[in-house]
Design a protein that fits this description.
mainly beta, Lipocalin, ten-stranded antiparallel barrel
Length: about 375
């Protein structure tokens, strides 16, 4: 998207606020202000200790699953925000690797049905993929989370462990196993030192050769109130709309090459939350956008993909609705410094025709 001068001014304002640590200006929520229908649920506090900003000391094996005992040590920074009313988090990370800066962010969500947390990771070097989750829970100050992945073409078990999370220096380790969890190689350890209790976004990337389209979503950073209109029944020839309001708070991640937004939808009789996740594909210059629905928090929906042209963003992907394969289209339009419109449409004929079923008008509050 070609940025006009208001967008450039907005970008400079965003960068200034980040460097100044002005979290409040981004609408970063204080944990106690996160509304929830069941504040007594203890799991809303599981990650409260991690919310804020941290200096991180890393110790990582140079070669994993190779019998190596040669470790690299380096620093980093992390910023963590609550989402889903405390039943989720986003944490953005900078790692000062010996061969250069690395960015990545984590996504967490609690599933009340299984009483477990899922943790996903997005690697800034390959931001078109969300890693398979590790899943687990806390027992006091210790947390254990297990999953499956692939490493150098082989299936492996992955384990994350958190230790002393309410202590002065919480720490994390990652283990990999090639024998079904009978033995583990710990290949990464992190030690956290708090620098701020209220989270502020990490610094944006300042590339000498900016990546095309990397600032397309700068307009969305901040806090918004939202007016929603959704078809009462979708893909049913229905013309009756339901109106309701909501809120939205969006933060930059990956130095501005990604962003994550916490949504509150005050749908009549059934309010819910969700998290939108967007990353830039450096190979194509296109953006990917995923949705994590707080009503089914163990899975992240397939992404839509696309970009901006003449001030309008168009993003299309494959999905399913009530068991039917569909295409989903998302449009961003009417973008100013203080407003924007989002629209969602479904197609059952491969994109030849579209039914618009959701329209959201955004008005900036911070």
């Amino acid at each position: 998207m070609s940025l006009s001068s208001p967008s450039l001014d907005r970008r400079r304002l965003i960068e200034t606020m980040i460097l100044a640590g002005a979290a409040a200006a981004f609408g970063v929520p204080v944990w106690s202000q996160s509304p929830s229908p069941a504040d007594g649920d203890a799991h809303r506090d599981d990650w409260r200790w991690l919310v804020g900003n941290w200096d991180v000391w890393h110790r990582r094996l140079k070669e994993r699953l190779a019998g190596s005992d040669d470790w690299a040590e380096f620093g980093g920074k992390s910023a963590c925000w609550p989402t889903l009313g405390g039943l989720g988090t986003i944490d953005d990370n900078i790692l000062d690797l010996p061969d250069g800066e690395y960015r990545g962010f984590g996504i967490r969500a609690f599933d009340p049905a299984t009483r477990t947390w899922s943790i996903w990771w997005v690697d800034g070097r390959n931001p078109t993929r969300i890693d398979p989750p590790v899943v687990g829970r806390f027992d006091g100050d210790e947390g254990v989370f297990n999953g499956r992945d692939r490493f150098k073409g082989c299936d492996i078990d992955v384990r994350f462990r958190w230790h002393d999370v309410h202590g002065a220096r919480p720490n994390w380790d990652q283990g990999l196993s090639t024998d079904g969890g009978k033995s583990w190689e710990i290949n990464w350890r992190n030690y956290f030192t708090r620098t701020a209790a209220t989270p502020a976004p990490l610094p944006l990337l300042h590339d000498t050769k900016p990546m095309p389209n990397s600032r397309d979503f700068d307009f969305l950073v901040g806090a918004w109130k939202v007016r929603h209109r959704r078809l009462k029944k979708r893909l049913a020839g229905n013309t009756e709309w339901i109106d309701f309001d909501g809120t939205f708070v969006n933060w930059p991640v990956l130095g501005g090459r990604g962003n994550a937004g916490d949504n509150v939808m005050n749908f009549p009789g059934a309010p819910f939350r969700g998290v939108g996740i967007r990353t830039l594909d450096p190979a194509t210059g296109e953006w990917l956008s995923w949705w994590l629905d707080g009503r089914s928090p163990a899975a992240i929906a397939p992404p839509v993909r696309g970009g901006f042209k003449d001030g309008v963003g168009t993003f299309i992907g494959d999905d399913s609705f009530e068991g039917r394969p569909i295409k989903t289209r998302v449009l961003w339009s009417r973008i100013t410094a203080t407003s924007a419109r989002w629209e969602q449409a479904f197609s059952v004929d491969g994109g030849q025709s579209w039914e618009t079923n959701w329209i959201s008008d955004f008005e900036r509050t911070a």
